[in-house]
């Protein structure tokens, strides 16, 4: 009896000590579709083109949230769809963890994670899926050649799109959090003091400049960047306030995360429509 009571007490302590649960799969997918299309249910209402985004969502899950043997269905979907460079077995990327799985994948796109995370392989799953679905070289060109400048431009944009997908997912865990300690092992909204990993918003700004490099002179792009910079400055000040983000400051920090999602959904869909790769995939 004493052993049972001790086990129950340990379980209670574990549950109360653990941070709030993250978004579930459906919520992450809905937010990604909101940012890309300003429609949380795009894949449900567009049966043909919706399959493209569903495969990207499968890849995002495998890259970011797969652990403890999960993800076999998503991996099968990608292999059945003949996405190149995809592992044949979930064991090739799997790791064992509990809620601290975020320490393996959630701290930033360019972070050097432990070897157990298989982060390079996970990034490749997402990038390869995006390349196959959105950045297939045009027929009749030489862009398929590995040394082609056009191929290089496509690869840069494909990675920039992958970074956008990645940080929308991480942003969802910020939005889910009800207190700051729930964001352990999650990339901060902004941390200008770390040049290698400056946080969600600065990294997004860096890669959005690549994704939309032909639109950087447009008023729409400039407005987006100005608003993102304001959110980054506010978030960085909160992050570096004396003693860190205190619980009384968390509502503003949390509001910044919600505002970031709205800013992205305001600007990104219209900018993407003007990009050839996106227009051909979803609007032709």
Task: Tag the structure with descriptive keywords.
mainly alpha; 2 domains; 12 helices; 0% strand; disordered N terminus
Structural class: mainly alpha
Largest sheet: none
Count of alpha/pi helices:
12
**DSSP strand count:** 0
**What is the helix content?**
55-70%
Instruction: Name the poorly predicted regions.
Output: 1-20, 138-145
Distance between the termini: 67 Å
| Overall 3D form | globular
What gyration radius follows from the Cα positions, in whole Å? 20 Å
Structure described in brief:
With 284 residues, this protein is an all-alpha fold. The chain has 12 helices and no strands.
Descriptive report:
This protein is mainly α and 284 residues long. It folds into two domains: 43-134, no CATH class; 152-284. The chain is built from twelve helices and no strands. It is globular and about 50 Å long.
Sequence-ordered SSE layout with sheet pairings:
Layout: H1 2-17, H2 25-37, H3 42-45, H4 50-64, H5 72-80, H6 102-105, H7 119-134, H8 149-176, H9 200-211, H10 219-239, H11 250-273, H12 276-282
Helix pairs in contact: 2-4, 2-8, 2-11, 4-5, 4-7, 7-8, 8-9, 8-11, 10-11
């Amino acid at each position: 009896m004493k052993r049972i009571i001790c086990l129950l007490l340990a379980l209670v302590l574990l549950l109360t000590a653990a941070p709030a649960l993250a978004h579930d799969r459906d919520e992450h997918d809905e937010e990604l579709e909101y940012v890309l299309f300003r429609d949380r249910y795009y894949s449900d209402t567009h049966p043909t083109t919706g399959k493209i985004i569903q495969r990207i969502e499968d890849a995002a899950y495998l890259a970011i949230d797969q652990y403890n043997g999960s993800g076999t269905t998503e991996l099968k979907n990608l292999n059945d769809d003949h996405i190149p460079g995809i592992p044949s077995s979930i064991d090739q990327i799997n790791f064992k963890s509990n809620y601290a799985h975020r320490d393996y994948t959630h701290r930033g796109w360019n972070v050097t994670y432990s070897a157990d995370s298989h982060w390079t392989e996970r990034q490749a799953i997402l990038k390869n899926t995006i390349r196959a679905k959105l950045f297939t070289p045009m027929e009749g060109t030489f862009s398929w050649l590995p040394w082609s400048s056009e191929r290089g431009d496509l690869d840069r944009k494909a990675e920039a799109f992958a970074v956008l997908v990645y940080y929308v997912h991480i942003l969802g865990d910020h939005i889910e959090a009800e207190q700051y300690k729930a964001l352990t092992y999650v990339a901060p909204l902004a941390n200008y003091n770390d040049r290698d990993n400056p946080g969600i918003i600065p990294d997004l700004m860096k890669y959005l400049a690549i994704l939309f490099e032909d639109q950087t002179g447009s008023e729409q792009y400039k407005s987006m960047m100005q608003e993102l910079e304001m959110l980054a400055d506010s978030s960085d000040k909160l992050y570096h306030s004396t003693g860190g983000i205190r619980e009384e400051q968390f509502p503003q920090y949390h509001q910044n995360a919600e505002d970031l999602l709205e800013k992205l959904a305001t600007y990104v869909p219209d900018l993407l429509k003007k990009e050839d790769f996106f227009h051909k995939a979803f609007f032709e």
